[in-house]
């Protein structure tokens, strides 16, 4: 229900099947890591639609991969009143600038901190820089990820396997460890895992196992840090329309039919997940700890 001019009016019902573009999607490829601004259709990250209601006023968030895709929940965070630092790979500066502009439009502090998460020294510097620009930290969203499709095990090089482990497993370890001394009780950590953690695709041998690891560390850290008053949760998306998929993450047949096997019959859009990241960070979710929240259009796990 919506309150307008002192009267209650019905919220508009929107059919979730029809809300966004449906497959077949245009086949397209970009060089890794890709830009949201060059995708067709452009993903919706809530730029024009997300409305805040003060749920994160005064909070200080660091979001990895905040330039595009699911990490653009950064926009929702700013509209809920949070100051936000985003990390991204240096070649994603264009996407990052757009997000930084949108955060600043809300009158919130924004920091753009480019760098390669596969480097431990950078991960530590990232946390320190976020703390110094924002004046502290109480939300860590470990969202950046590497996904590269490979049809056979022979095609998975040691370099690619290592890059996937560094980005998806080591970087969260380095970042969370560096952030811990700054996190007071009431702070939260949110990790992006995947339905791949539970039901891996054969072409995502390296990636899928990192997402199982992410799901697992959410549960171990939820126990370890819950005792210190820090909540740790994860989000497990299904197919979501982001640069990850078209910059090596999926074969073109999957891109073309992305999300067609879900009951809603289409890929999800990043904007449809932003409110989950807001909810998990919000103070009123104070009993949510060690949990994984799915958003997959009705297929997949959890
Ligand atoms: P995305 O491409 O928009 O975001 C991924 C981000 O990871 C990039 O923007 C980039 O900034 C960052 N990144 C990757 N390697 C990096 C490195 N070495 N250094 C610095 N930054 C690096 O795509 P997305 O789909 O929004 O991905 C966000 C998260 O969602 C990932 O963890 C991904 O595994 C997960 N996920 C996505 C889907 C999906 O269908 N899109 C499904 C399940 C889970
Ligand atoms: Mg990006």
TrEMBL record:
Q: Pfam family of this protein, just one?
A: adh_short_C2
Q: Spell out the molecular function terms from Gene Ontology.
A: oxidoreductase activity, acting on CH-OH group of donors
Entry keyword annotation includes Oxidoreductase: yes
Q: Where is the composition biased (Basic and acidic residues)?
A: 39-48
**Could you confirm whether the keyword Lipid biosynthesis appears in this record?**
no
InterPro entries xrefs:
NAD(P)-bd_dom_sf, Sc_DH/Rdtase_CS, SDR_fam
Q: Where is this region: Disordered?
A: 17-51
| Record's keyword terms, sorted | Oxidoreductase
Which family is annotated? Belongs to the short-chain dehydrogenases/reductases (SDR) family.
What's the name of the protein?
Answer: Uncharacterized oxidoreductase YghA
